[in-house]
Amino acid sequence: MTDFSQTRAAFDLPEGVIYLDGNSLGPLPRSAAERVARMMTQEWGRLLIRGWNEAGWYVQPRRVGDRIAPLIGAEPGSVVMGDTLSVKVFQALSAAVEMRPERRVILSDSGNFPSDLYVAQELVAALDRGADRGVDRGVDREPDLGLELRIVAPEEVEAAIDDSIAVTLLTEVDYRTGRLHDMAALTARAHAAGALTIWDLAHSAGALPVRLAEAGADFAVGCTYKYLNGGPGAPAFIYVDPRHADAARPALAGWMGHAAPFAFDPHWTPASGIERMRVGTPPVLALTALEAALDIWEGVSLDALRQESIRLSEAFIAAVAARLPGLPLASPREPERRGSQVSFRHPDAYAIVQALIARGVIGDFRAPDIMRFGFTPLYLTLVETEKAADLLADVVLTEAWNQPEYRIRAQVT
Amino acid sequence: MTDFSQTRAAFDLPEGVIYLDGNSLGPLPRSAAERVARMMTQEWGRLLIRGWNEAGWYVQPRRVGDRIAPLIGAEPGSVVMGDTLSVKVFQALSAAVEMRPERRVILSDSGNFPSDLYVAQELVAALDRGADRGVDRGVDREPDLGLELRIVAPEEVEAAIDDSIAVTLLTEVDYRTGRLHDMAALTARAHAAGALTIWDLAHSAGALPVRLAEAGADFAVGCTYKYLNGGPGAPAFIYVDPRHADAARPALAGWMGHAAPFAFDPHWTPASGIERMRVGTPPVLALTALEAALDIWEGVSLDALRQESIRLSEAFIAAVAARLPGLPLASPREPERRGSQVSFRHPDAYAIVQALIARGVIGDFRAPDIMRFGFTPLYLTLVETEKAADLLADVVLTEAWNQPEYRIRAQVT
Q: Could you say which EC number(s) this protein's record lists (chains A, B) (predicted)?
């Protein structure tokens, strides 16, 4: 039985704040600062360069990956940490398109996080310009033979998967609406069409049970600073289905992914398995903070977490609807079609979120009109949830948001 | 006047250790652990998501870049932090080859760090396969029209620069021998031939005066965990000559490099200037440790540092030569042709380095036969340098290294 009062006690939460933004940046685990300080003074300070072996820094990306694996339904040894989510998307996507050389379409949707689309767009553009470079300039290349990034509406993804698709690049949970894709069904559909799948788990890992191996997902990537509470800029993870791991060839490769990094061979020979997705020197401070955060997950049942997340989000929706029946819900109404967030639309969403923050309820604004609230049972209670709904209703009904100080445009949100 | 006893006092150095491996991992600055703990508890813990604006995390990659800039002779606003050195090499190289579409050769040398070569090799391979994908399969592509990575000996680089070269990819200081390339001369030669230059400053930044702007270098990249003492896995930096910054188009692009990251536009529009080289969420913990390390550089004259580095390395060479006249120096004998390290060759280099470490002198082994010693005036004294030379001679002359415990093959060195 998961005791969420115990997990809550493991976080250092500021007084007077109801935090509904753990889907953007998780809070500080109580043990993290001391853990990082100890790593710095005892390992870096005392061992110096010897820390790579003696403190296990070198194997930390795999060790931490093995702790992420059970949270995303992955096999041990199939996950490795490093870099940022965008870099890992780049590696997964470049490897996947290589594995389907006869196909030309990368399929994504308009609910995907823009950075994933940017990575795809610029990879396609670079490969396309690479093709121009390669062609005998006396012969025109057919313009439709290169790769194409095709973006459809989220509800059109399933129908758009056909045998032209090399790979689908989808974020399981929509960062604005919380809409949850059916990973198992879409993966099966992609495989039936001969396509590969890349799943971005930014809003899934630590938010709900993920079953990568069961779904047969080919690649997955995610970040650890949201529901996994690793801290600002915490490193990303990448998963490669063990069936593919020895075939995957990322366009971005570095020495830590070499079969023998310390042989200093001038030629890159990929390590076997997931190790080849390592690039440069791992971020030891950040991985150490993340290790402290992952301790909190020991003994937490993901099914119990999901149940509690639904209880909180349903209570929030009901409480908001009772007082603001006209406020449009931007999230699916059925909890099983949502991740662990609830979004509403309002033309003054930005100012309302600012006014709420001033009252101690931290949510998020997403352009153009989304108010986004994350539900994180590890540290969020039902009492807080209901109070947040009340404060939201107070702000909207009294037009408390309609003050100049709340209407300044966000520089960063 | 730079007072190196004061900079030495700013480091937490373990008792009984003479550290000649600051060119692999710099030691712990005394203020770093407390600085990171304060960032974690006061900023992350109290501000949560608001830290991105209120604690300046969002602008940290540029703020820290502006502190690196004077150490490498770069203009303010021309350097940004993030990712790892290999990722930054990838960005610089992909942008550079785009800027020379009519040329096909990337020129590097066998003294370059292997990871740079791996990045180049796999980028070339990916673009080449992209070209195969793009070509009408009825027409064979000329195999010699794609990009080529050409690797010559370091002393042959200058002669190899001709008008086939798109870009040179060179590490200024050889990681094994310490041989220093003439950045100004090679950059001038490259420009005369119409080529661009990428300088890897891994063993230069903080080791000697670097004059990027004066040399007219086009791109530069470097890491911060060696002579800059940022800690294990500290983030990399990238420099783009302001003349090119708005033209450079890296194949790897993310939302933090977008002109308007928080508009969540589905299309990537590069930010102006160096900002476009940002990719994902910046590593705030690591950047905070690095900021503490950079404080130590305030008031340090790079010319005084260079002078002291030469004094230490010359004393080391002289002391070793006096007792081990037959030991081959792997580094250039003239100090102005070296970086801030001295290397010797010995068939039992690995075992000798292990035996030295057991005696408190930490140096580095680099395959197959290099013993490498870094000289870091910020915290290394002449007395330590001479003692280290003596201990090296003792170990070699008494064959103290010839014990089974020192002969085990390195797993990680």
A: 3.7.1.3
Backbone angles phi, psi at A338, to 5 degrees: -110, 160
- How far is the C-alpha of A75 from the C-alpha of A240, rounded, in Å? 10
CATH topology match: A4-29+301-407 vs A58-297: no
Residue to mutate among A129, A151, A277, with most B CBs inside 10 A, is A129
Contacts of A413 in chain B (CB under 8 A): 262
Q: A253 CA to chain B: closest CA distance, Å?
A: 6
Q: Strands, DSSP E only, in B201-339?
A: 219-222, 236-240
Selection from A326, A230, A237, A229 nearest residue A274 by Cα:
A237
CB contacts of A281 in chain B (<8 Å) are 84-85, 223, 225, 232-233
Cβ contact A129:A284 at 8 Å: no
Q: Which two tokens stand for residue B211?
A: 């004059």
Is some CB atom of chain A closer than 8 A to the CB atom of B192? no
Q: Which two tokens stand for residue B129?
A: 């396969």
Q: Spell out the domain ranges in chain B.
A: 4-29+301-407, 58-297
- CA B191 to chain CA centroid, Å, is 23
Instruction: Tell me what pLDDT residue B80 has.
Output: 98
> C-alpha angle with apex A89: B132 to A35, nearest 5 degrees?
145
pLDDT exceeds cutoff 90 at A59: yes
CATH of domain B4-29+301-407: 3.90.1150.10
Task: Report pLDDT for A412.
Answer: 40
Q: Looking at residue B146, what is its pLDDT?
A: 84
Active-site hit among A90, A113, A365, A373:
A113
To the query of whether residue A372 is one of the catalytic residues in this protein, the response is yes
ipTM for the predicted complex comes to 0.96
Are A87 and B83 inside 8 Å of each other by CB?
yes
Selecting from 3.30.390.50, 3.30.1700.10, 3.40.640.10, 3.40.50.300, what CATH number does the domain B58-297 have? 3.40.640.10
Query: Does the pLDDT at position B286 exceed 60?
Result: yes
- Which of A19, A84, A105 has the highest number of chain B CBs within 10 A, making it the mutation to test binding with B? A84
Among A61-65, A327-331, A396-400, B233-237, the range scoring the smallest mean pLDDT is A396-400
3-class DSSP assignment, residue B328: coil
The whole-number average pLDDT for the span B185-195 is 98
pLDDT of amino acid A145 = 61
DSSP string, B85-99: HHHHHHHHHHHHHHH
Asked if B24 reaches chain A (Cβ–Cβ under 8 Å), the answer is: yes
Strand locations in A201-347, DSSP E? 219-222, 236-240, 341-345
Distance linking the first and last C-alpha atoms of chain B: 37
Whether B379 is a known active-site residue: answer no
Inter-chain contact B86–A131, Cβ cutoff 8 Å? no
Per-residue pLDDT band at A135 (split at 50, 70, 90): low
A 270-329 residues with CB < 8 A to B:
279-287, 289
Q: What average pLDDT score do residues B222-250 get?
A: 98
CB contact under 8 A, A232 and B285: yes
Q: How many inter-chain contacts (A to B, CB under 8 Å) are there?
A: 355
Q: What is the pTM of this model?
A: 0.96
Structure tokens at A29: 């685990």
Q: B87 — contact with chain A (CB < 8 Å)?
A: yes
Q: Does the pLDDT at position A140 exceed 60?
A: no
A189 an active-site residue? no
